[in-house]
Amino acid sequence: GTPKGVLVPHRAVVNFVGAARELFSMTAEDRVLQFANPSFDVSIFDIYPALASGATLVGAPRSVLHDVTLLADLMRRERISVADIPPAVLGLLDPDSLPELRALFVGLEAFPAELVNRWRTSRRQFHNGYGPTEATVACVDYACPDEPLTASPPIGRAMANYRAYVLDAAGNPVPIGIPGQLYIAGVGLARGYLGQPALTAERFVPCPFGEPGARMYATGDVVAWQAGGQLQFIGRLDRQIKIRGLRIELGEIEHALASFAGIRQSAVVVNDAAAGGPRLDAYLVPEESGQADGSNGMGAPGAELDNDALFRHLSEHIPLHMIPSTFTLLDSLPLNANGKLDRERLPVPASPDELPHLPPASETERIIAGIWSELLNVDGESIGQRDSFFSLGGSSLQATQLLSRIRDAFYLTLEPRQLFTHPTLHQLAALVDDTLRESFDEAELSELEAEIAGMSEDEINRMLAESTGE
Fold it and tell me: What is the pLDDT of residues 212-227, one digit of tens each?
């Protein structure tokens, strides 16, 4: 996407680093995992509190961070004691295998009580952290208690030199238990947005509860005070959402869709009831009215849009996790009496169950379907050619594991972007076959096929073992 350009002053970072060092009691004996990409503000927590405490900062290649087996091995080998790990990744690790991990800083999205209960012990801290970049990494924290939780933990209290206010639409403080928008004030606030004075004035507003000239940041998050003085996260005021821990602006996706030749209007919604978890559904109105027949899904009769070209276009303009899982062509978008999009009247996209099941037709499709079945814990017999890896519940982390399995099965390396431009079983199998063919000229391929055709399974396995050294 397009960065907003958040101007964070050095003193705000210094304040956060000092607060994090104190919060986690960091010393020179600690070994801290650098998990976050350096372009992501959470990397500030990984790097600077560690170095400012004399602790050891442990880096790792992306391939290790995206493979939970390699990640667990690295954390054991390097004796990691403090880490900030997203809930989706933490849920795949074994807490008993990391006895030296004494403190966890977990955030990005709401997570269940079960995750805390698995990891929190009398010897391991578990912190639920909250904070937008505009308030410098994290500004609210909750140290989960020893006793088991029965619900998602609150986000906690304001950290050192921050203040949190929960206000109604008129700017008045709300009572305990009543939802309101969360506002953050204090030394950790950013100056604003680079070259966007109007947006800065909209989000960084005067604070009536502090010294003259003080400001506070309108987070857009809805929270409520609990009786014990903790903040409970409820949701968002605007259309900004999170799926699997990744922040998504629906308007940004709609803008990318509308900029594709042949699309006149677009709308994107979150389908919380989809199998495998929340997904993004897109609705498109073609330039030529009437060319869509009301059928669901790209490639419907009468549709003129190039599916592959659309995927390529989206992958060049928005992050891969923001590409919708389904596309529905409409003659027009439904509007309410005020002329605004009526999201309640958008049709339900076609699901795989509503389309004829096409079982895997080639050996490549059958092998990939078997890999999907293991990764996604779905019945392999139910996977068909039209099924999408992501519509079946595949996440970005599992996409990385899929690439590894494909490499092991076919001895070729695909790029992550190719999974998003070839999401269905048929498309991905065709990509694998085409990539394999490009590795040989026609004469070599014919010779190899003839040789394999006359070999037994044991002979083929011996040949593969000799060629790979395994």
Answer: 889 999 999 999 999 9
pLDDT digits (tens, 9 = 90+) for 286-298: 876 444 433 333 4
Spatial contact of 258 and 318, defined as CB atoms under 8 Å apart = no
Q: Exposure pattern of 187-202 as b/e (b: 16+ CB <10 Å)?
A: ebbbebbeeeeeebee
Cβ neighbours for 1, distance < 8 A, ≥ 6 positions apart? 249, 252, 318, 319, 322
Q: How far is CA 234 from CA 212, 221, 245, in A?
A: 31, 8, 15
> For the chain, what is the HEC assignment?
CCCCCEECCHHHHHHHHHHHHHHCCCCCCCEEECCCCCCCCCHHHHHHHHHHCCCEEECCCHHHHCCHHHHHHHHHHCCCCEECCCHHHHCCCCHHHCCCCCEEEECCCCCCHHHHHHHCECCEEEEEEECCHHHCCCCEEEECCCCCCCCCCCCEEECCCEEEEEECCCCCECCCCCCEEEEEEECCCCCEECCCHHHHHHHEEECCCCCCCCEEEEEEEEEEECCCCCEEEEEECCCEEEECCEEEEHHHHHHHHHCCCCEEEEEEEEECCCCCCCEEEEEEEECCCCCCCCCCCCCCCCCCCCHHHHHHHHHHHCCHHHCCCEEEECCCCCECCCCCECHHHCCCCCCHHHCCCCCCCCHHHHHHHHHHHHHHCCCHHHCCCCCECCCCCCCHHHHHHHHHHHHHHHCCCCCHHHHHHCCEHHHHHHHHHHHHHHCCCHHHHHHHHHHHHCCCHHHHHHHHHHHHCC
pLDDT, residue 275, reads 61
User: Quick one: average pLDDT of 106-129?
Assistant: 88
Measured distance CA(406)–CA(412) in Å, rounded: 7
With contact defined as beta carbons under 8 Å apart, do 168 and 190 qualify?
no
The contacts of residue 335 (CB under 8 Å, 6+ apart) are 341, 342
Q: How far is CA 227 from CA 178, 287, 345, in A?
A: 11, 54, 40
Q: Give the model confidence (pLDDT) of 407-458 as tens digits.
A: 989 888 888 778 877 888 888 998 999 888 877 666 666 777 777 777 887 8
